[in-house]
Amino acid sequence: MHKHIQWLLGQIPDLIDRQVIDEQTAVQLKSHFEPQLLKRGSSPVFLITSLLGAVLIGAGVISLFAYNWEHLSRTTKTILSFLPMIVAMGIFSYGFVRKKDSLAWRESSAGFLMLMVGACISLIAQTYHIGGTMTDFLRNWMLLSIPLIYLTNSTLCAVFYMAGTTAWLLSLQSLWGKSEGAEIYYWLFLLAVLPHIWINLKQQTSRMRSTILGWGLGIALCISVPFLVESNWDGKIFWAYSLLFSLLYIAGRYFYAAAEHAWQKPFQFLAVGGIFITSMILAEGNWEYLMPEGLAEIIGRGDRAFFGYVANSILGGIVVLFLLIAHWRFPRHGLRLNLFISLFPLLFVISTASLLGTGDVLPMILMNVYLLALGIYFLWDGIKKEKLGLVNTGMLFISSLLVMRFFDANLGFVVKGIVFILIGAGFIAVNMYLSKKRNLSHA
Fold this sequence. Notes:
Blueprint: H1 2-17, H2 23-38, H3 44-66, H4 74-98, H5 103-127, H6 134-152, H7 155-171, H8 186-203, H9 207-224, H10 236-255, H11 266-283, H12 295-300, H13 303-329, H14 339-342, H15 344-353, H16 355-358, H17 361-385, H18 388-408, H19 413-442
Helix pairs in contact: 1-2, 3-5, 4-5, 5-6, 5-7, 6-7, 6-8, 7-8, 7-9, 10-11, 10-13, 11-17, 15-17, 17-18, 18-19
């Protein structure tokens, strides 16, 4: 954007000489565009490097204090424990007063302050031998960080918070262990940051900020879902993921409808990728894990497990209600939905119901047909709109399904090799055709 503004401002003297615009118009153009040119701190590269700098500085300060820490007196340790946080508060205050228009300064100083709060908690606990686990530390740190998110309006703090609460959830249990329902409190942590995310996504004050928030929230949810379904990694994971991916897709259509590139649509990207992976897994079978768990078994784990089951059931019902309302209202407001993606939970319900009468044969067939249909849709839509990203997505879906089926088939290596070559050649041919067509249209 800045280079285009610079080009336009550079053309103003020539436009005046040719009498295309007058002096008054030139002054108005300069007064409108020059302030935007000065805000270089909001550029994506500068913002990202500033955020990375804040993380590295925070890690460096913690490393310096770790050196010879055991040889210091308790009083010195206490002073040094609070000193980084006090310095970070001073840096942020200076930026808030003197650099309020610099997004990178505000983000980096706020992120540095949040890291120093965590360092202070850790150092004080170590100095005074306060007992506790990593779970306790992450819980206390995230609780103290909630006010920072809203006082600083910092995207970096919000991302750190979502990463920290996800780490807290993972610390509750090992991959195969359970915490008897304690993980349900993750939803309360998430609820604390949702207003900040909603405001920033709704206002779209900065596309980069809204994109980063979307990636942070989407990735956090995708990681957390397996630990939130109150089940030992059985079929409830697929049930939860089917609702999550549909929810992410619809939310993405609402918040990122104007985005141009795939990386600027984090919710849609994660939804399509998640549906692809889930469908590939279920197209191979694995349906025996999808039968619902007995309620008696859940109650037998304890009150907290039962509370988690009830809370997740209510939340699932709310998500289903939201999806129904979205399918009714979105088309009336001009937001077109890809029904292949938004109705994925319905396909999942039909496939699971068919288990009762046919075993896993019909569900596998349905999931294979679904993958093929979704791939064809993306391919056709991409060719029609001349978008290479959609075309390659469709080709990926179709080719992955073909490769998976050919590995299952009792065919020789020569036949499989020829098929793989043809698939690869198809990728290249379609991309070359679209690239040539786009170049001709822009010539």
